[in-house]
Design goal:
The protein has 20 helices and 22 strands. It is an alpha/beta fold. It has 4 domains: 219 residues, Rossmann fold, CATH 3.40.50.970; 116 residues, 3-Layer(aba) Sandwich (Rossmann fold); 167 residues, Rossmann fold; 54 residues, 2-Layer Sandwich (Alpha-Beta Plaits), CATH 3.30.70. The strands form 6 sheets. A 6-stranded parallel sheet has the order 3-2-4-5-7-6, sandwiched between helices. A 5-stranded mixed sheet has the order 9-11-10-12-13, with helices on both faces. A 5-stranded parallel sheet has the order 14-15-16-18-17, with helices on both faces. Strand 6, helix 6 and strand 7 form a beta-alpha-beta unit. The chain starts with a strand and ends in a 5-residue tail after the last strand.
């Protein structure tokens, strides 16, 4: 054993490797992404890693590996669990042979997600055991325990870190390579009575699952992951206590040191709930304050335990207004809530409050080809009744002024369905659906098939920047390389669309503004489903050469370059436009818009 300074996601990955994981797959999504990437960097030769096209596919691959006796892990964020829920619900009923850990990183805040979802609810819904780590060390230990539990009980197990666990750093104790588990899969053994899901089998397995979960409740009650800390000092005999879990337990421990060491119940396995351990804690309490993210899961469980065991303990938390009902907890918010509940004065500030941080709204990078794509469509459709359906990714930022080109954004691939609906209801509206190249493979193809089959009329715009940019530039089927470093034939978006039956598929460089506008005008006029692929690499991968310069004598101060495209490399200095050479990538979009040709340099786009 030795110490290493690791990010929580790195700790989870290293824990999986130490547990002898044979296969890891997933789909990138903040805050989960670094888990798979770390496995890929540190994997033993016999460990297979892939970025799958979406979470559903990844879940099915991991499930298949576990059928064969492998230890498998599948990674995603909480939104991805929605996509993967179909196979996971069935895997819950049919079970596994090898260990299957489902890593779902929740995002309280939300910091980088459409929703605040609490995967602890899904664990209960799917009847699956869940581990809820409070920090990097516990995450490292828990993933290994999750594999052991999964194999022992033949069930998928959920590991639910939240953003602060996933992205926080800590010095943790890790195993040396000679201590790693070496798991050799038995291989798939044919058994149609086990691996073919039928209603009768599901009924029988449901009975077994309920019995297993009652047993696991007792197992978790005896687990060191679920423990009671007694009160200390003046509060040693206090009949007020706190109940907590996940990263909120770390905040609660710190708040407890500051506000008073009241008794504490820490829950590391919120499902099946460690009922007996909770009852043991509650018998000595008059009041318990629940500190957790996101939903009142522990709070509701404790209320249930009080009812079942005839306890009169008053349970407080989100449902009583003692804790906020949405967003992240913080050290300060937990300390303030604990002090208020204990009747203590607010914590004194020992230093002046820092000034507020400047507001930095998210914007497309300087030189981002998506800016040029949106602007081309905007110019081409000027004056026409049009709806622009967006999607999840960097291009969601096309909603910002001055582009203002995202009218809807729901979830990955949904823009295609929304565009079809508007077309069927408002035939006089020109509908556009924007989707990225990675998202195209992940979730857009069925929408295109549906549109062709049901005779919809809209324009699909694929923003192909040759990567999965927002989550950290992961490869996808259109990039021609895999997470294992293999060079493979890229899957052609053009050929996929043509194979589906889209008759008009145009590919154009969005940084060639005149040609891009002309292509949009021509394509949008055609009936049925048509597609434009704006193909230009992300500037992080392939920056154009050179920088643009502004001739101050020619510049008339019209601000069109700033007013029209909103590039962060452009500003206004006095009465003239100015360019920030540290940000400018030389994409030359602004030079193509300047009415007096005062901007020159960068790449030429004839």
């Amino acid at each position: 054993m030795h110490q290493e300074f690791l990010m929580g996601n790195e700790a989870i990955a290293r824990g999986a490797i130490a547990a002898g994981v044979n296969l890891v797959c997933g789909y990138p999504g903040t805050p989960s992404t670094e888990v798979l990437e770390t496995v890929a960097k540190n994997r033993p030769e016999d460990t297979y890693v892939e970025w799958s096209v979406n979470e559903k596919t990844a879940m099915e691959i991991a499930g298949g590996a576990a059928y064969a006796g492998a230890r498998a892990m599948v990674t995603m964020k909480q939104m991805g669990l929605n996509v993967a829920s179909d196979p996971l619900m069935c895997l819950s009923y049919i079970g596994v042979k090898g260990g299957l850990v489902v890593l779902v990183a929740d995002d309280p805040g939300p910091i980088s997600s459409q929703t605040e979802q609490d995967t602890r609810h899904f664990a209960s819904f799917a009847k699956l055991p869940v581990f809820d780590p409070s920090g990097a060390q516990e995450a490292y230990d828990m993933v290994q325990e999750a594999f052991e539990l999964s194999e022992k009980y033949g069930t998928p197990v959920i590991l639910r870190p939240t953003t602060r666990v996933s992205h926080g750093y800590a010095s943790i104790t890790v195993k040396d390579p000679e201590e790693y588990v070496k798991n050799v899969p038995e291989g798939f053994v044919r058994d149609t009575g086990r691996w073919v899901i039928f209603p009768r089998l599901s009924y029988q397995n449901h009975i077994k699952i309920e019995k297993r979960n009652r047993e696991l409740s007792d197992v978790f009650s005896d687990s060191p992951r679920n423990y009671i800390l007694p009160g200390e000092g003046e509060l040693a005999g206090s009949r007020k206590g706190i109940a907590t879990g996940g990263f909120s337990a770390s905040y609660a421990l710190e708040a407890r040191r500051k506000a008073g060491a009241v008794p504490m119940l820490k829950i590391g396995n919120p499902f099946p709930f460690p009922e007996k351990k909770a009852a043991e804690f509650l018998r000595g309490m008059d009041e318990v304050l629940c500190i957790e993210e996101l939903d009142p899961v522990i709070e509701r469980e404790l209320i249930y335990v009080c009812g079942k065991y005839g306890l009169k303990t008053r349970i407080l938390g989100k449902m009583t207004g003692h804790m906020p009902t949405a967003g992240e907890n913080t050290r300060d918010s937990v300390t303030a809530a604990l002090r208020a509940w204990l009747g203590l004065p607010a914590e004194e500030q020992t230093a002046a409050a820092p000034p507020p941080l400047p507001v930095r709204p998210p914007v497309l990078c300087a030189g981002c080809p998506h800016r040029a794509s949106f602007y081309a469509v905007k110019q081409a459709m000027k004056g026409k009744k049009t709806i622009f359906c967006g999607d999840i990714g960097c291009y969601t930022l096309g909603n910002a002024q001055p582009l203002d080109m995202v009218d809807t954004c729901l979830c990955m691939g949904a823009g295609l369905g929304i565009a079809q609906a508007i077309d069927h209801l408002e035939p006089d509206t020109s509908c556009f659906a924007f989707v990225g190249d990675s998202t195209f493979f992940a979730s857009a193809i069925p929408g295109v098939v549906n549109a062709v089959y049901n005779q919809a009329s809209f324009t699909l715009v694929v923003l192909d920047n040759s990567t999965t940019a927002m989550t950290g530039h992961q490869p996808h089927p259109g990039t021609g390389r895999t997470m294992m470093g293999q060079i493979v034939d890229r899957v052609s978006i053009e050929k996929v669309l043509e194979g589906i039956g889209v008759e008009t598929v145009e590919t154009v460089d969005p940084l060639d503004h005149a040609k891009a506008v002309e292509t949009v005008k021509r394509t949008a006029e055609k009936p049925g489903v048509k597609a434009i692929i704006f193909c230009s690499p992300c500037v992080v991968l392939a920056k154009p050469q050179g920088r643009v310069t502004i001739d101050a004598e020619k510049c008339i101060g019209c601000r069109k370059c700033i007013r029209e495209i909103g590039c962060p490399a452009l500003s206004f200095d006095g009465k003239k436009a100015a360019v920030d050479p540290a940000q400018c990538t030389g994409c030359s979009l602004c030079s193509q818009l300047c009415p007096v040709k005062a901007i020159s340099g960068g790449e030429a786009h004839a």
